[in-house]
Specification:
Strand content: 25-35%
Helix content: 10-25%
Number of helices: 11
Structural class: alpha/beta
Radius of gyration: 22 Å
Strand order of the largest sheet: 1-6-7-8-9-10-2-3-4-5
Largest sheet: 10 strands, mixed
Distance between the termini: 49 Å
Oligomer: single chain
Length: 427
């Protein structure tokens, strides 16, 4: 089956929620040849899975090492064992009962490797790790069952407007990067760009992801309404802070729905929807699935969505549809399918800007126009050539998708000016 490029939550490769560190210390088993000392150090790369690139970091030491998967909140997980043999390295990891092996060879300054887990074998190229400078401050905001870790990108002047940036669906982190689609840094670029234009921003990893992985132990416990409540808590904290002259919301993709629902509950100055769906999720999912599934699987998907929209769980799901309709994600889908974004937007009293790219493969002009009908006084702006990760991209699917995992590409040149001017209420 083709790769499903969908709005919904997706199955993660390495581990589920609630993973715990194994404190077993890795031990080196020496090979016959002397190890190449250039292997020692921190390396980064992408596991090339059928669902996309998954960024990882490995720290190789002489007799131990650790694995980190930022998108999944896995940090410095210790190796079970590590073995060097000349230019070769072999790593074994016991990840919550799942056997992981990484075998690689140092060549031309990088490690050409394979990543094996649960019978799957995926290519992996590791390059020397480059530490990314942290340009934000970390805050803790009280939410249900704990504290939400958020990134505050300060503006150059105070008091300033502040915008809450809400990421899209699935394992998409505060920077706009995903364990499924790859690293593009789209939301990070928005935050840093707006800070340079005297607009502060706050963004965060959702429950069960990255910095906030510990706030979700079971996938079946999360609903879209919980995400909305978290956003409202952040907004109320910002509203109470005299460092900010006004509070705004920027929602990307599914974050648009979360943002407009939060805007109904909090007194924000404006709401910006970027690539936000205008129709109920089941309509968009079926539209996307029609070109990717066999008639039998498409009928099963249609029936499943019909049941979930009624609030009914689906007991029997084909293996090919598990990533979409697995039992643990069904409570979230039920909570998601009950909302019609255009109808909900009518309940938002603040100023609204709708931004839509013309080469977006996931959300199309129909959605932007439908949102506009729900809020006739909203401002609708099309970005010519902008795709779903907010970069310049052609309509060609393969070339378009290649931008999803290229953080070197800048944002579409018209995006930041449009957001900045709207928040500043420039005429």
């Amino acid at each position: 089956m083709k790769k499903l490029l969908l709005l919904c939550c997706a199955l993660l490769l390495l581990a589920a929620c609630g993973q715990k560190e194994d404190n077993t210390k890795g031990k080196e088993t020496k090979g016959d040849n002397k190890m190449n000392e250039q292997l020692v150090g921190k390396w980064e790369g992408n596991i090339e899975t059928p669902n996309g690139a998954l960024p990882i970091i490995v720290d190789l030491q002489k007799d131990s090492g650790t694995l980190s998967v930022p998108a999944q909140g896995l940090s410095n997980y210790p190796f079970k064992s590590i073995k060097y043999d000349g230019d070769q390295v072999s790593i074994s990891i016991n990840l919550n009962g799942s056997a992981v092996e990484i075998n690689g060879t140092l060549k031309d300054g990088q490690i050409e490797a394979t990543f094996q887990q649960n019978g799957g074998k995926f290519p992996l190229v590791l390059k020397p790790f480059k530490e990314q400078p942290v340009t934000y401050e970390t805050l803790k905001i009280p939410v249900q069952n704990g504290e939400l870790t958020v990134a505050l990108q300060k503006a150059s002047k105070e008091p300033s407007p502040v915008a809450l940036i809400i990421a899209g669906s699935g394992p998409t982190d505060k920077d706009g990067n995903s364990a499924i689609a790859g690293k593009n840094n789209s939301l990070k670029m928005i935050a840093e760009g707006l800070a340079n234009e005297s607009i502060a921003t706050v963004r965060y990893d959702k429950r069960g992801l990255g910095d906030n992985q510990s706030l979700l132990t079971k996938e079946e416990d999360i609903t879209i309404d919980q995400y909305v409540d978290d956003a409202v808590q952040v907004i109320n904290t910002l509203l109470a802070d005299k460092a900010y002259s006004s509070v705004h919301i920027i929602g990307h993709s599914e974050g648009s729905l979360i943002g407009l629902l939060a805007a109904q509950k909090a007194n924000v100055e404006s709401f910006v929807s970027i690539a936000g769906a205008g129709r109920p999720a089941d309509e968009i999912l079926l539209e996307q699935l029609k070109g990717q599934l066999s008639p039998e699987l498409l009928k099963e998907s249609t029936d499943a969505l019909t049941s979930l929209k009624k609030g009914e769980l689906v007991k029997n799901v084909s293996p090919d549809l598990q990533s979409l309709f697995r039992s643990s994600v069904q409570p979230y889908m039920i909570s998601w399918l009950k909302y019609n974004p255009a109808s909900e937007l009518t309940k938002v009293n603040s100023r609204v800007l709708i931004l839509q790219g013309t080469t977006d493969l996931q959300v199309v002009a129909t959605d932007a126009e439908t949102l506009k009908k729900g809020k006739p006084d909203a401002k609708l702006v099309y970005m010519d050539g902008m795709n779903h990760v907010l970069k310049d991209a052609p309509a060609d699917r393969t070339k378009n998708l290649a931008t999803y995992s290229d953080p070197s590409l800048p944002l579409h040149k018209e995006l930041l000016p449009a957001i900045q001017q709207f928040i500043m209420n420039d005429k």
